[in-house]
Amino acid sequence: MGNGLTTGELSCELAAYWMHELRFPSVRRLLTEFVDKADDPREARALETVIQAFEDGWDGAAVYERYGASRRSVEEPWAVADHADTDRSAQEVADEIVEIDLTAEEWRLLRSGLAEWGGPARCTNEMAVALGFEDRAHLSSETWERLLPEMDARQPLSRLDWLRVLLATEVVFASDVMGSGSEWPITVGVSDADTILMLRGLQRKIGREVRRLVGKGFGTR
Fold first, then answer.
1. For the chain, which residues make up each domain, given as ranges?
2. 47, 35 in Cβ contact below 8 A?
3. How far is CA 74 from CA 54, 102, 162, in A?
4. Helix (H, G, I), strand (E, B), or coil: what is residue 215?
5. pLDDT reported for residue 219
6. 123, 128, 163, 215: which has the fewest C-beta neighbours closer than 10 Å?
7. What are the mean pLDDT values of the chain's consecutive 10-residue runs (221 residues total)?
């Protein structure tokens, strides 16, 4: 890997441990750049495990707490700033407006994915709730009255809305029972292969911002 980082399992675990403690914003930005430029999906996934350690809900936190009894009782000023999310409610984090750099094709794919729930996709109230809405009616009103106009204007969305739009696109593309499924290339005009490639890029770009909501502001664990 040309960036000088080692993506072996042990190295990434150690890096994740350190980053959960330190949470340097500059390191997170650097890792994000490496993920976006990575040619090997395995390298991207390894680096994303380190990025996830910046979150309070990191899966490795239990191990971290076990061996972190000797953490300093008074944090330095820079550490307090890096833990800013700790002082905010889950709702504040979910409602925060986040600007994500997307290509025109990526915007179009997400817009199409959301719009497909107006047909040919067959949504139920339960599925609408799973996608982050109150029910089918709420999904429809939010889609046509607010989200699509904002997306057409390329406006940054809230962290919760990014999660809703990405999840709605993932499900409607993949499911032939409730979503567009095999009809996707016809109704949207993008092949399955091209859609998968774009979705993988969107999952990296958007995923790093919205994963922190799962179980904390979006669903329960």
1. 9-87, 97-213
2. yes
3. 20, 40, 36
4. coil
5. 84
6. 215
7. 45 67 75 80 79 75 52 39 57 93 96 94 94 95 96 96 97 95 95 95 93 85 71
| Burial class (CB within 10 angstroms; exposed 0-12, middle 13-18, buried 19+) of 23 | buried
According to DSSP, the residues that pair with 220 across neighbouring strands are none
Nearest Cα neighbor of 32 from 130, 124, 101, 108 is: 101
Residue 190 contacts residue 132 (beta carbons within 8 Å): no
Q: Which residue has the tokens 């009616």?
A: 137
The encoded tokens of residue 186 equal 């016809």
Token pair 């994963």 is at which residue?
A: 211
Phi-psi region of 29 (alpha: psi -120 to 50; beta: other; left: phi over 0): alpha
Q: 94 and 160 in contact (C-beta within 8 Å)?
A: yes
Eight-class DSSP state of 204: H
Q: Which pair of structure tokens corresponds to residue 123?
A: 């949504």
Q: Which two tokens stand for residue 24?
A: 């340097």
pTM exceeds 0.70: no
Query: H/E element holding 97?
Result: strand 97-98
Q: Cβ of 144: how many Cβ atoms within 10 Å?
A: 13
- Cβ burial, residue 60 (10 Å; 0-12/13-18/19+): middle
